Amino acid sequence: MSGKKISAYPAAPTLPTIHNSKLVAQSNLFKIEQLDLEFNNGEKRQYERMKGSGRGAVMVVPCISANEFILVREYAAGIHGYEVGFPKGLIDPGETPEEAANRELKEEIGFGAKRFLKLKTVSMAPSYFSAQMHIYIALDLYEESLEGDEPEPLEKITWRWSDASSLLDQEDFNEARSVAALFLAQQKIDSQPDLFK
């Protein structure tokens, strides 16, 4: 290897042609869509995917200060257990992602924020699911609460940035999007020391 840094990788190939799509299963929350695809080399395949609402979701890293941030502990039905992570939720119709982020903060931790910095938009299991989540850092917090749709109050946990890496050792901090948000937020804070001024 030459050690030469690669700043970009080759462009993606042309997308396969969707010849047919149909809904094959549906519940209150999920729709399963079957796709008949033809790839550029002539290969034909049938894929299934969960069809998203198209609204997207947000996750927020609420920073109390340059030293501390807030997490929440809430019930996760998929694993039938309690998980620690960052406040999150769906974007309501007519909301911008920033408005949804502020609403979710008020509902889940009793704070709003005056500033939001977008970190990245991520997808979850893109081979099977089209949902996207916008990840933000929230700064300049102020107290304000809204009633949310959670079945029980969420436990707020304050954590120090100087101890952020130890979150990875916690048995109940496992959600990939929260782990990604932690790394993205830490990178942003490290690269912009005047963020909290």
Please explain how this structure is put together.
14% of the residues lie in helices and 40% in strands. The chain starts with 16 loop residues before the first strand and ends in a 6-residue tail after the last helix. The longest helix is centred in the last third of the chain and has 16 residues, at 176-191. It folds into two domains: 17-50; 57-191, Alpha-Beta Complex (Nucleoside Triphosphate Pyrophosphohydrolase), CATH 3.90.79.10. The protein is globular, with a radius of gyration of 20 Å. It has helices at residues 97-108, 176-191; strands at 17-26, 31-38, 44-50, 57-62, 68-76, 81-85, 88-90, 111-123, 132-143, 155-160. The chain is built from two helices and ten strands; from the N terminus they run E-E-E-E-E-E-E-H-E-E-E-H. By secondary structure, it is mainly β. The strands form three sheets. Strands 7-4-9-8 form a four-stranded mixed beta sheet. A three-stranded antiparallel beta sheet has the order 1-2-3, with no helix packed on it. One of its GO terms (cellular component) is cytosol. Its cofactor is Mg(2+).
